[in-house]
Amino acid sequence: MSVQAPSAVVMIRPDRFRPNPQTAGDNVFQTASDLSDEDTAARAQSEFDAAVTRLRAAGITVHEFQDSGADTPDAVFPNNWFSTHSGGYVALYPMYAENRRAERRWDVIELLKARYRVQEVADFSGLEPDGLFLEGTGAMVIDHISRVAYVARSHRADPILLERVCTRLGYEPIVFDARDASGTPVYHTNVLMAVGTGIALIGDGMIPDAARRAEILDRLAEPGRDVISLSEAQIRAFAGNAIELSTPTGPVLALSETARAALTPDQLSRIEVATGLLPLSIPTLERAGGSVRCMLAGVHLAPRTRSKGQVA
């Protein structure tokens, strides 16, 4: 298993899913639906269940939890409120939207502590009243191999808090501006780029500073990765919102069907040199402005050794 590609993930089954009105102001990836809230939620649940089935069939461990919040429409995207790291570290993060703060749940952390070796839970969520936000591996795209955290500037990624988190977890922060053609900042770094073991996908044309862009491309390529440039249209189709996972038969890149359809034959061929593809159909869930990477909170922790007869 690659340190970059976890073999287990945490997923939260949505309850009252809908595009979140509290995040619509800065998440230009959100799209309105003409369905009723009930139909939207039902379709989201069906897509979620099918995705879990496909992941498990590929040999990936899925720790599934059910959301039951009265106002947690984005609960299906848990990678924003917590992350896990080698060495036994779990981090909890302060969230920008008020209704997203209710997504944090201790039963998830307790499962991680029971099933994996957790040395420390670093809780930064208490900084929300101070207006300091850092939305997990949405705001940070982490290169676990080179120990780098890539971060696009936004009000969801406070630079002071970022330095504190990176110092605590042992990453070098690389911060940069990224904007779409209209000048709107990219709200989360993980819609712009994905870092795998042998490949990286990035909408580098959306980074206006040429010197910074070149530096980032060089750093991504350092471990021998093939760095694949994505167009802004491909970023809009969530081609950058992917995650590499480890399976018993080798690595796979989990991404949406929307994302896969946006990639060119040449890009797909280059990806498949390094990893298989595991496309998931989640068009309703993508209306909330996130895709497959946002749904999967990777578990980068060492599993505990189970005693004989212990139930999994």
TrEMBL record:
Pfam families: DDAH_eukar (PF19420)
Keyword hit for Iron: no
Protein name per UniProt: Amidinotransferase family protein
Keywords: Transferase
GO function term, MF aspect, one: transferase activity
InterPro entries attached to this UniProt entry: Amdntrnsf_FN0238
The organism of origin for this protein: Roseovarius nubinhibens (strain ATCC BAA-591 / DSM 15170 / ISM)
Taxonomy, superkingdom: Bacteria
